[in-house]
Write a structure and sequence with these properties.
The structure holds 2 protein chains of 2 kinds. Chain A is α+β, with helices and mostly antiparallel strands. Chain A has 8 helices and 12 strands. Chain B is of the alpha/beta class. Chain B is globular. The chains are: A alpha+beta, B alpha/beta.
């Protein structure tokens, strides 16, 4: 999960919230529980204190009597942790009355630690008792006898705090464990939620990749309501960009048509004449023609760059061009042969492929003695190279080019042979188009004796 | 040889007519698709020069309709749209050749000659018949190597007969292929021109076949 991702943001906030909320919730639950346990413990001690005091009053008159019916067997078991004690105060001699469980020990009294009584005349304290037991002690002062015989007694009940503490500890451990499990569960659910919730975005990503690679023309995936508008807008945008390109092409074509007829008129008119002016006009008009073609081609290519790719089947394009050439050159009885696997598809516009193959095949047909061979091979993607390539070759058995001519770069408008009609633009158009597709264009000597034009273009997979 | 030029640009149309007339063709002109279609449908042309971007009816439709009506004269498309996709579309519609604007008139004339030759079954640019020799490139006729002077009508007549030598050519056919549409077609003028030609070349090369027409054949070849 990258830190700069939606998934990370969602997960991090969920985790932070968990880390913050679960411990606080744990602390609150624990303190409420502890309070509840302490209150009920105190209430039980308080009740026992009341019972013992009452019992003691019932069995004595001016002096406290030993309580007989407390109803708590723990007072009878030695060092059980539960004790009671009735002790005369103010230095008055006499044995204190104690529970059997005390077995000779004494309960430490809150009044000896200067603990103030609460509103029910009872003092409460947590004190260390016999055998290092932590005791919760409740003490009340009661006066037995009347007049001169009146005597203050301290009546106390103590219970060990240890067992409550142990149970609270156990509760705390279990609570922490339960909350930790809940936290882990929540994080797992969050992860799932993110994966599941963001899944449509993955689909969008895949759809866009398909459009870029030319497999799809528009985004067409099942999307949830919230991002469906995105798909709609994106498709509208794709269509707009496509329309813009089409319009640009149309305008460019119209411009060509509009300019070339007047140019033809000027050139023809000037050729009738032999004056200096006519020669200049002819020369300049031809320059204009070259420039018009150059920038029309550039505009066509620029209009295409960045536009969503198209896929064109190679064989039908080659066959339709060859059909046209067979008609144009039918007197020459040229033999055209096509060797093209059925699945060879060019990653690009049909018009551009037509332009490249048309120029190459026409050139080959112009020079061939009897034979033109068109062949295509698909080179699979190499591990280090980007994408797969189509290798297209057009060979003829004509005169070909000299090694010096082959070594020269392909320059627009330069004609290697002036004896046959042509604008000298063919090969440079092919080279420009091939480069615009990041392909290659080379000329070599053919095994048939003539020229071998070799074109490398992106293969659609 | 009769040529039809269908081109909406007036200047270019005029230039084509003048260049073609100078080269010895009888030329008809049309300025839009409908007019061009009608002429091509009704008149027997030896070659048609057809622009693609025409008013009223585009060139591709004109061509397709002619071909559907089995009008099989050679058609050369003349257009500014020089991308191969346009060329292929034109050729698929039934064109025989394709010339992109701007073009050199010499190139267009060469292509027209090639179409005429092809239609009459000649492979080379000069046609021989006995001592006569027609150079289609320069529009000149020589007799035993000596150039003979011909008026444009005489040239058209002799050139047509030479393209179709050893074949009987009817008077109507000659009228249809030698004169522009608006020309006064009195078939007697053909007889006048034949008479004049017979004075310039060995007279028995052009034989009159009664009731059928004329035939140009090598001297001494008796039928």
């Amino acid at each position: 999960m990258k830190t700069n991702s939606l998934a990370f943001r969602l997960f991090a906030t969920a985790a932070a919230w968990n880390l913050l909320v679960l411990p606080i919730a744990g602390a609150i639950i624990y303190s409420l529980y502890r309070q509840e346990v302490e209150t009920s413990f105190d209430r039980r001690i308080g009740v026992l204190l009341t019972v013992i005091l009452q019992d003691s009053i019932d069995h004595g008159e001016s002096e406290p009597g030993a309580p007989k019916d407390v109803g708590e067997p723990l007072f009878e078991i030695t060092h059980s942790g539960w004790y009671w004690q009735i002790k005369p105060l103010d230095g008055k001699p006499g044995h204190p009355l104690v529970s059997r469980s005390l077995a000779g020990e004494v309960i430490p009294l809150p009044s000896e630690f200067n603990i103030e009584p609460n509103d029910r005349e009872t003092r409460w304290a947590n004190l260390d008792g016999p055998l290092e037991q932590k005791l919760r002690v409740a003490e009340t002062i009661y006066v037995f006898g009347e007049g001169k015989k009146a005597q203050r007694y301290s009546v106390a009940v103590a219970a060990t705090w240890g067992e409550v503490e142990a149970s609270l500890r156990a509760f705390r451990t279990r609570l922490a464990l339960a909350l930790a499990l809940a936290g882990i569960g929540l994080l797992a659910v969050t992860l799932f939620q993110i994966r599941f919730g963001l899944f449509p975005l993955h689909k969008v990503e895949k759809g866009l990749a398909a459009i870029r690679s030319g497999e799809a023309e528009r985004l067409d995936v099942e999307l949830p309501q919230e991002i469906e508008p995105l798909q709609h807008e994106l498709n509208a945008l794709l269509k707009t960009s496509h329309d813009i390109v089409e319009r640009a092409r149309t305008h460019v074509g119209n411009l060509a048509h509009a300019l070339k007829t007047p140019l033809a008129v000027i050139v023809n008119e000037a050729r009738e004449d032999t004056s200096q002016l006519a020669r200049k006009v002819t020369e300049q008009a031809e320059l204009m023609h070259t420039q018009v073609n150059l920038y029309l081609d550039r505009a066509r290519m620029a209009a295409r760059i960045g536009v969503i790719g198209r896929v064109t089947e190679v064989r039908p394009v080659a066959e339709s061009i060859i059909r046209a050439l067979e008609r144009i050159y039918r007197d020459r009885q040229l033999e055209f042969s096509v060797d093209c696997p059925a699945g060879a598809r060019f990653q690009g516009e049909r018009q551009d492929l037509e332009e490249m193959l048309g120029n190459l095949l026409d050139n080959a047909a112009k020079w061939a003695r009897a034979k033109v061979v068109f062949s295509v091979a698909a080179a699979p993607a190499e591990a280090d190279a980007a994408g797969a390539w189509l290798e297209i070759r057009v060979d003829d058995d004509g005169p070909g080019l000299t090694p010096e001519q082959l070594a020269e770069p392909i320059i627009r408008g330069r004609r290697l042979d002036e004896t046959k009609p042509g604008s000298g633009l063919g090969h440079s158009i092919v080279a420009d188009l091939a480069h615009s597709y990041r392909g290659k264009f080379e000329l070599a000597r053919s095994e048939l004796g003539g020229l071998s034009a070799r074109l490398t273009l992106p293969l659609a997979t | 040889m009769r040529v039809l030029v269908v081109e909406d640009d007036r200047d270019l149309n005029r230039q084509l007519i003048s260049a073609l007339t100078d080269a010895g063709y009888a030329v008809d002109a049309a300025f839009d698709g409908e007019e061009g279609y009608f002429l091509g449908e009704t008149e027997p042309y030896d070659v048609v020069i057809l622009d693609i971007g025409l008013p009223k009816m585009d060139g591709i439709s004109v061509l397709e309709q002619w071909r559907r009506a089995e009008r099989n004269m050679p058609v050369i498309i003349l257009t500014a749209r020089d991308r191969w996709s346009d060329k292929v579309a034109g050729m698929d519609a039934g064109a025989d050749d394709y010339v992109a604007k701007p073009f050199h008139m010499e190139e267009l004339l060469a292509r027209i000659r090639a179409q005429v030759r092809r239609a009459s079954g000649h492979a080379r640019s000069d046609i021989e018949c006995g001592p006569l020799r027609l150079d289609t490139k320069t529009a000149r006729v020589t007799l035993n190597g000596q150039p003979i002077k011909l008026t444009s009508h005489e040239y058209r007549l002799l050139a047509y007969l030479m393209h179709h030598n050893e074949r009987v050519v009817s008077r109507t056919e000659l009228v249809e292929h030698l004169y522009e549409q608006d020309f006064d077609r009195d078939s007697n003028t053909i007889e006048v021109f034949i008479g004049r030609l017979r004075k310039k070349i060995p007279p028995d090369m052009i034989k009159t076949i009664r009731g059928l027409g004329y035939r140009l054949s090598q001297e001494g070849d008796e039928n």
